[in-house]
């Protein structure tokens, strides 16, 4: 049976639903996820729908530009992101799901810090291996 979860940002301007059973939570040790203290549930692309507030969604992309992080323009809450390692899936901010008990599932740490950095000026605290970006394509 497929579970339906509804969620929103802090101000309620962005509302979304997930038609998928979340069976595992993940954290990531990349610099972005660590700074925002993200705990995510991985869901297939087709399982996530934006029910309200599409116009309030802003995006953040950096490094390889493959992952697309979505947050509310009004309250700045990160709600979900298209995953870099699995671009046909989203990582949903589990704390945005209404009534979801984050203690009900195991949390698995994932390794993102070692992913290749593709930017002209990587910060020293970004530990991934460095790759030179082609001219004219600064990634951050």
Structure write-up:
There is one protein chain. This protein is mainly beta. The strands form 3 sheets. A 7-stranded mixed sheet has the order 6-7-8-9-4-3-10. Strands 1-2-5 form a 3-stranded antiparallel sheet, with no helix packed on it. A two-stranded parallel sheet has the order 11-12. The protein has one helix spanning 31-36; strands at 4-8, 15-19, 25-28, 40-44, 48-52, 57-60, 68-72, 78-82, 89-93, 107-110, 117-118, 130-131. Mean pLDDT is 82; it is low at 133-140. It has 1 helix and 12 strands. The termini are far apart.
Summarize the structure.
The chain is mainly beta.
Low-confidence stretches: 133-140
How far apart are the first and last residues' alpha carbons, in Å? 42 Å
DSSP helix fraction: under 10%
> What is the tally of beta strands?
12
Roughly what is the average pLDDT, rounded to an integer? 82
Write the layout of secondary structure elements.
Elements: E1 4-8, E2 15-19, E3 25-28, H1 31-36, E4 40-44, E5 48-52, E6 57-60, E7 68-72, E8 78-82, E9 89-93, E10 107-110, E11 117-118, E12 130-131
Parallel strand pairs: 3-10, 11-12
Antiparallel strand pairs: 1-2, 2-5, 3-4, 4-9, 6-7, 7-8, 8-9
Keywords, separated by commas or semicolons:
disordered C terminus, globular, mainly beta, 140 residues, seven-stranded mixed sheet, 1 helix
């Amino acid at each position: 049976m497929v579970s339906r979860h509804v969620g929103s940002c802090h101000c309620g301007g962005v509302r979304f639903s997930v038609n998928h059973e979340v069976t595992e939570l993940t954290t990531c040790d990349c610099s972005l996820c660590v700074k925002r203290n993200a705990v995510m549930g991985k869901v297939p692309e087709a399982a996530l729908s934006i029910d309200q507030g599409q116009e309030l969604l802003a995006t953040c992309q950096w490094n390889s530009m493959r992952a697309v992080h979505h947050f509310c323009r009004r309250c700045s809450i990160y709600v979900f992101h298209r995953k870099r390692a699995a671009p046909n899936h989203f990582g949903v901010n589990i704390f945005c799901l209404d009534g979801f008990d984050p203690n009900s599932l195991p949390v698995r740490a994932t390794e993102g810090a070692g992913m290749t950095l593709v930017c002209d000026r990587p910060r020293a605290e970004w530990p991934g291996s460095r790759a030179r970006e082609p001219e004219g394509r600064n990634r951050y």
